[in-house]
Structures are given as structure tokens and as C-alpha cells.
Amino acid sequence: MAAAYSAVVAATVLLGPAVVAVAARIGRHHPGLAAWGGTLTLLGLFARAFHAGAGHLAFQLVRSSGPAVPPRATAPTTSSAR
């Protein structure tokens, strides 16, 4: 699981500057579209990394504390734990 989370974070780190570069190129002709598209894409990338981290935390808590603890610990950060 740690390898999967590490891969997600590495992809986000590598895609972040690429998204900024593409948005800058689009911004030469359509600045508003580039700003909105770049912003929403970056927010989506980093939100995915955040939720992958919350999932990783839950798996680690199951391993160390048992299955009752993770729903209480991750409920404020995930929408699926109600």
C-alpha cells in the first residue's frame, strides 16, 4: 500500500508542473480558460493525493488498532464514511 501511495504522490508532483506549463501555453490565446482549467486540474490532482493519504492512514490504523478505529479517524476527511 505504501508503494501505491508513493506512486500517486510522485505522479502528482510530476503532473503539477506539466499542468502549469500546458495552462501557460493555452493562456497565450485564452487566458480565462487556461486559468480555470489549470486551477481545476491542479485541485483535482491534489485532492486525489489527499484522499489516497486518508485511505493509506485507514489501512495503517486497521493494522495497528483494529477495524473499529479507522472510520472515526477518517470520517472528517472522506465523504463515504457517514
Notes on the protein architecture:
The longest helix is centred in the middle third of the chain and has 35 residues, at 31-65. The chain has helices spanning 2-27, 31-65, 69-74. It has 82 residues and is mainly alpha-helical. It has one domain (2-74). The mean pLDDT is 82. The protein is elongated. Keywords: Membrane, Transmembrane, Transmembrane helix. The chain crosses the membrane at residues 33-50.
Main sheet properties: none
Provide the number of structural domains. Answer: 1
Distance between the first and last residues' Cα:
24 Å
Q: How much is the radius of gyration in Å?
A: 17 Å
| pLDDT < 50 runs, ≥5 residues | none
Q: Estimate what percentage of residues fall within beta strands.
A: under 5%
> With helices defined by DSSP (H or I, 4 residues minimum), what is the helix count?
3
Task: Tally the beta strands.
Answer: 0
Helix-and-strand structural type: mainly alpha
Keywords: Membrane, Transmembrane, Transmembrane helix
Transmembrane segments: 33-50
Pick out its properties.
single chain; 82 residues; mainly alpha; membrane; transmembrane helix; transmembrane
Outline of the structure:
The chain is mainly α and 82 residues long. The chain has helices at 2-27, 31-65, 69-74.
Protein topology:
Elements: H1 2-27, H2 31-65, H3 69-74
